[in-house]
């Protein structure tokens, strides 16, 4: 995954939050977490976004709620898919590092530095895998709010 693959939020009212270019996100877990935090801005702000863009009954004629909900739906789908892609890509990359370190460890069992590095990578891998669970919770919360506020204005395709 390259920085070009990292999305910017397409939701009106949310600033574009792409990751800095050239960052080796998978190697540094803190950078990985920061990238996900920034990418989750759309989910964190969904209630505010809906409150400011969807009209109350008295202002219903002034805003196209159907279009607003459709755009929000598309932005959420893109954000969720791109975060999942990045998480899974980093898990695969880190898994390969762990596999390589295990093979090296087999050959040099008395190498303490290698063992330490292997344990660090295994810990990082477990933390990355736990981000998939976090992602599921964040996504479920966003879809719940989206469905509560947009169900009368927009019906998403059946694939969701």
UniProtKB/TrEMBL annotation:
Keywords: Coiled coil
The keyword Coiled coil belongs to this UniProt entry's keyword annotation: yes
Pfam families found in the cross-reference section: MIX23
UniProt key word Coiled coil: yes
One CC-aspect GO term: mitochondrial intermembrane space
Coiled-coil blocks: 91-135
Family, as annotated: Belongs to the MIX23 family.
Protein name from the UniProt record: Protein MIX23
Species of the source: Chelydra serpentina
């Amino acid at each position: 995954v390259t920085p070009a693959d990292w999305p910017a939020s397409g939701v009106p009212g949310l600033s574009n939050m792409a990751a800095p270019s050239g960052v080796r996100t998978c190697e540094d877990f803190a950078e990985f977490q920061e990238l996900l935090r920034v990418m989750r801005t759309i989910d964190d702000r969904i209630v505010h976004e809906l409150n400011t863009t969807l009209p109350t009954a008295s202002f219903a004629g002034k805003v196209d709620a159907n279009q607003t909900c459709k755009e929000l739906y598309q932005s959420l789908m893109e954000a969720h898919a791109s975060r999942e892609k990045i998480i899974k890509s980093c898990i695969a990359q880190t898994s390969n590092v762990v596999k390589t370190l295990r093979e090296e460890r087999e050959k040099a069992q008395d190498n303490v530095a290698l063992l330490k590095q292997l344990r660090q990578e295994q810990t990082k891998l477990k933390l990355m895998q736990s981000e998939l669970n976090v992602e599921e919770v964040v996504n479920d919360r966003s879809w719940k709010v989206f469905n509560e506020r947009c169900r009368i204005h927009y019906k998403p395709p059946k694939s969701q």
